[in-house]
Amino acid sequence: MTDIVVPDSQVTPELQYRIEQFLYYESRLLDDRQFRLWYDMLDDNLRYTMPIRQNRLRREQHLEYDGAAEAQFFDETKKSIDMRIRRLETGFAWAEDPPSRTRHLVTNVTIFHVCKENIQLSAYFHVYRSRLERQIEHFVGQRIDCLKITGDSYSLLAREIRLDQSTLMTNSLSFFF
Amino acid sequence: MTEPFIESEMLGTTHWTSAAICDLVDENKGSIDPRIYTDEQLYQLELERIFGRAWLCVAHEAQIPNAGDFFSTYMGEDPVLVVRQVDMSVKVLLNQCLHRGMKLCRADLGNAKVFNCSYHGWSYGINGDLIRVPREEEGYKNKLIKSDWGAIEVAAVELYHGLIFATWDRQAPKLKSYLGDAAYYLDTFLSRHDGGTEIIGGVTKWVIKANWKFAAEQFASDMYHAPLSHLSATLAAMPPGTSVSKAEWKGTGYHVRTHQGGHGTGFFSAPTEAAQIENIQILFGWMGEDASKYYYTEAAENLRQRRGDAPLGINGAHMTIFPNLSFLPAIQTLRVWQPRGPNEIEVWAVTLVDKAAPQAAKEQWRLGNIRTFSAGGVFEQDDGENWVMIQDVLRGYRARKTALNTSMGQGFSKPHEDYPGIVGDVFSEEAARGLYSHWAKMLTTDKWATLYD
User: Fold this and answer.
1) Rounded Cα gap, residues B446 and A67, in angstroms
2) Is B129 an annotated catalytic residue?
3) Interface test with B, best of A53, A92, A97, A166 (most B CBs within 10 A)
């Protein structure tokens, strides 16, 4: 969890632009509630996680995040994401009916590893959520993504969501990051 | 003669009388007054009379395996440190420096040799003794009697199948008496296998802007909400294209109000092999094959051999140990509803599994809990939605004046030959009535003997 993100020297302005456009498109689909189109951007071998973070003394900082086999807010595969989307599609998913208004702002996109098959990047996010009459929530953090290169596009192979909250300030994580 | 207002240590005298509090919960009519969820003075009385006296679950032993390990939690709104001692016993200390009241330790968990207050530097041993005070000579002229100023300790700590409970009240009965009929059902969760339990990873915490009793009551008493509140999740866990009629909750089950203490549970108990297979399939769908198989065969058999349970026993269940410890056997989520004022709770949830369970089953429970009963879980999301909306509605004057119906199954529960407590049909509110009646008793009675009449 302590990896230092350094830009890869192979990153051209063109690649940077293409990756950013990919991430913006993904955000727009989520905010437009086009979950099935977003689902199509996920790789069949997706691992999508959001570890919990605990308040640890500085000398125990290496234990701040729970590990991959421990407590997470999300630990999803493409199949479980499908289950979550199917839930939204039932017409009985009360926590999203009426649906939330979300806006996924993505910034600080840093590509730190490029190879023939994959691109790894870090991006900061600010997810704004407005729900029903006056429920407002903000979620800020970092996403560590691994994209698989698929011809002239990409699929999302791995996403680790590092949320900058310890106690989660919402009653329902009923949307995607 | 008019009845006196309640004397409260914290409030002086509140505007509530005992009679007025008892009137909020009408067992005979089957109704409750929604001010129990909103009134600030009632909430302060709860902190004093309920959270200040009841046995509260503060940790699982596995969270503090080694000497010096601490886990930081709350008893009501009081921060406490649960600390493993050098002799491996457990102490529970008020997380407050006795000099100016600063929080002694601000980490959620870890290992410590001393607790050093960050304000003026008073240091406490892991046993709570005040061991070092800066400028003891120049400032205090060596007159400070440090042994008088150790960290405040709870009145009693008891372990129960791996869970650590504590109470502030020296008069509190032993934990086993406090649990009463509930122990049998708690054992089904904590001692389904005699190899003990462990928890997977850290505590998942999130906020729900609703009164703690909505959550406590639902887990004590409410199988009724599940078919509708959780219809989307039930459908999504089934094969794509499953019709709504197939997602109906079937099976025979029981609902239990403990004779005393305000605890409650409900569960399905398959009377036939066919019904049992259906139950296994539900757990299979939500958690996975290994978890389901282990739970219904090896673990169930282990319990049966030790306790002689009915062959098809207790399956999926919901339960609350009064006031704020809830869990779902089979799903394996365990949580404490930490009160944060009358209008908010923090959920502190862990996944608890038998140590003896196969690794594959443990992993299925870990993933299954993330996806069903946690902040992002497809079941839990809809619970929060309901409670938050009720709390919002109760901002209204008319809404707060409107009595709410708690009459389901009234008069249809009675003692049962297999199951302890007052037992009725799985769809009932007997346990809710028990919980609220006990709540009113605790607020208005200061003697445990009277509470357990």
Assistant:
1) 46
2) no
3) A92
Q: Does the residue A175 lie in any domain?
A: no
A18 domain residue, yes or no? yes
Helix (H) or strand (E) holding B271: none
Q: Which of A70, A167, A173 sits opposite B201 (nearest CB)?
A: A70
A20 lies in some domain: yes
Rounded to whole angstroms, what are the CA distances from B112 to B105, B165, B211? Answer: 10, 21, 34
Say which residue the tokens 């290992």 belong to.
Answer: B111
Instruction: Nearest chain B residue to A91 by CA: give it.
Output: B232
> Span B255-265, mean pLDDT?
97
Question: Can you state the angle between helices B212-221 and B380-393, rounded to 10 degrees?
Answer: 130
Look at strands B114-116 and B204-208 and give their pairing: unpaired
Which of B335, B366, B382, B391 to mutate to test binding with chain A, by most A CBs within 10 Å of its CB?
B382
- Partners of A70 on chain B (C-beta within 8 Å) are 200-202, 366
pLDDT of A1 higher than 50: no
Are residues A74 and B204, on separate chains, in Cβ contact within 8 Å? no
The answer on pLDDT for B2 being more than 70 is no
Give the span between the Cα atoms of B356 and B336, in whole angstroms: 25
pLDDT, tens digit (0-9, with 9 covering 90-100), for B327-354: 999 999 999 999 999 999 999 999 999 9
- Cα A69 from Cα B20, distance rounded (Å): 51
Compute the mean pLDDT over every residue in chain B, rounded to the nearest whole number.
93
Q: Is B206 on the interface with A (CB under 8 A)?
A: yes
pLDDT at B269: 80
Q: What residues in B contact A100, CB-CB < 8 Å? A: none
**Average pLDDT for A150-170:** 97
User: Tell me, what's the pLDDT at B251?
Assistant: 65
Joined tokens for residue B131: 């061991």
Note down the domain range covering A34: 13-163
Residue range B256-279: mean pLDDT, rounded: 86
CATH code of the domain occupying B56-159: 2.102.10.10
Complex ipTM > 0.85: yes
Which residue from A minimizes the CA distance to B112?
A57
Question: Are residues B121 and B97 in contact, defined by beta-carbon separation less than 8 angstroms?
Answer: no
Residue of B108, B208, B371 with shortest CB distance to A171: B208
Report which of A174, A29, A35 is spatially closest to residue A92, judged by C-alpha positions. Answer: A174
Count how many Cα atoms sit within 13 Å of the Cα of residue B131 in the half-sphere of its side chain: 11
Judge residue A166's burial from the number of C-beta atoms within 10 Å of its C-beta, 0-12 exposed, 13-18 middle, 19 or more buried: middle
For chain B, what are the domain ranges? 56-159, 180-451
Could you tell me if residue A168 is inside a domain? no
Residues B363, A87: C-beta atoms closer than 8 Å: no
Using a CB-CB distance cutoff of 8 angstroms, which residues of chain A are in contact with residue B246? none
Q: How many structural domains compose chain A?
A: 1
**pLDDT of A32 over the 50 cut:** yes
Superfamily of domain B180-451: Naphthalene 1,2-dioxygenase Alpha Subunit; Chain A, domain 1 (3.90.380.10)
User: For position A125, which CATH number holds?
Assistant: 3.10.450.50
Under an 8 A CB cutoff, do A75 and B370 touch?
A: yes
Q: What is the pLDDT of residues B276-296, one digit of tens each?
A: 777 777 778 788 999 999 998
Residue B290, classed as helix, strand or coil, is helix
* pLDDT > 60? residue B402: yes
A100 touches chain B (CB under 8 A): no
Please give the pLDDT value at position A2: 47
